[in-house]
Structures are given as C-alpha cells and as structure tokens.
Design a protein that fits this description.
single chain; 193 residues; alpha/beta; Spore Coat Polysaccharide Biosynthesis Protein SpsA, Chain A; two-stranded antiparallel ribbon; 24% strand; disordered N terminus
C-alpha cells in the first residue's frame, strides 16, 4: 500500500534583519506581511504540517499569524543565526516525518503551488533533496529527506544549508524558480519589490 510521505514545512523566521534595520518578516507586500504570505502559502500545502521558527520580536510575529493553522516554535538560540532555527525545527519533528521543506519569509514569490511542486518533484525524481535554482545557485525553498537531517543538525552560526547542497550535487534535483532570486535583505531590495 502506498502512503503519502509525511512532510514538515519549516519557516525560518527568527532573525533580527540587521541589514534592513526593521523586522523584514513584517514588511507589507500585496496587502499582507511577508511572514503572513509565506505562512499562508505553506499552511495551504495538503498533507503537511507547518512550523514557524520565531526568535526576534516573537510576540509581534505571533500576532501576525496566530489565526493560521501553523505551529509556532520559539528558538531560544535565534541570535546564533539561521542554523540554530534549522536545528530547533528538525529536533521538534516526530519520527513519522520523513522530509523537511525549509523556507524563509523574505522570498515574496513563494507560493503554495511552488511548495507542492517541490514535494511532487521528490516523488517523481526519487532524489532525496529538491532545491530551488535561481541566480546561478541553488537554495531555499529546499526539501531534505530524513537521511540529511543529521548534516542539517551539524550546521552552526549563520550558514544555511547551501553547503550541504554543494557537497551532495548528485542527491539534488534542481527546480527552476527564477523569482527566488528576489529576497529582502536591505531597504533597497524592498523598494525594488
């Protein structure tokens, strides 16, 4: 009997946005905050559970998404960098989860359809990692099968999972997502949006 794999979606939204000077998660785009847009897209993916990792200004972030069907998890070590949120998210997952889809809240063009395409690509290609390709690189949103949870747990500081993607090219299916190159790190990025 074929069962649908259990997919966890982890939104890494705990950072301070130091380059921007204001929490980018709360910046408005098309009538809602970036965090709310991302959480709504993720929560709409069938057969998955979404966890939002919070840290900086956690209470403000919670208010932004408290009515959505997402689990909120405080990362007490958020000041270390994004790796700490990945670890907190992975460690919170039950054993029934066999893949984690990692995303951030500052890519305004992430949609439910994109996330569903990532999950479907894992099934259709048999690859243990599906990562989005944009701007000459691969990155988030990216899905990692359980066999890569240990390497994710070894990450430290402000380094994301890009090193794992680069070290395991044969394990990665690269899904074109040109709009992934648009993310909000500075006020100029936001003005250009």
């Amino acid at each position: 009997m074929h069962t649908t794999p259990s997919i966890a979606i982890l939104i890494l939204a705990a950072g301070r946005s130091s380059r921007l000077g204001t929490p980018k998660q709360l910046l408005g785009y098309q009538g809602q905050s970036l965090l709310r847009r991302t959480a709504r897209a993720a929560a709409s993916v069938a057969g998955s559970e979404t966890t939002v990792l919070l840290g900086f200004e956690a209470d403000l972030m919670k208010k932004e998404i408290e009515d959505l069907p997402v689990r909120m998890l405080l990362n007490p070590a958020w000041e270390e960098g994004i790796a700490s949120s990945m670890r907190a998210g992975i460690l919170s997952l039950p054993l029934s989860v066999d893949a984690a889809l990692l995303l951030v809240s500052d890519q305004p063009h992430v949609t439910t359809e994109l996330l569903e395409k990532i999950i479907a690509s894992r099934t259709s290609t048999g690859k243990p990692i599906v990562a989005c390709e944009y701007g000459g690189t691969v990155g988030v949103p990216a899905l990692f099968s359980r066999i890569f949870f240990d390497p994710l747990l070894q990450l430290r500081g402000d380094s994301g999972a890009r090193g794992i993607l680069q070290q395991n090219p044969d394990a990665v299916f690269r899904l074109p997502f040109p709009e992934g190159n648009i993310d909000i790190d500075t006020i100029i990025d936001y003005q250009n949006l």
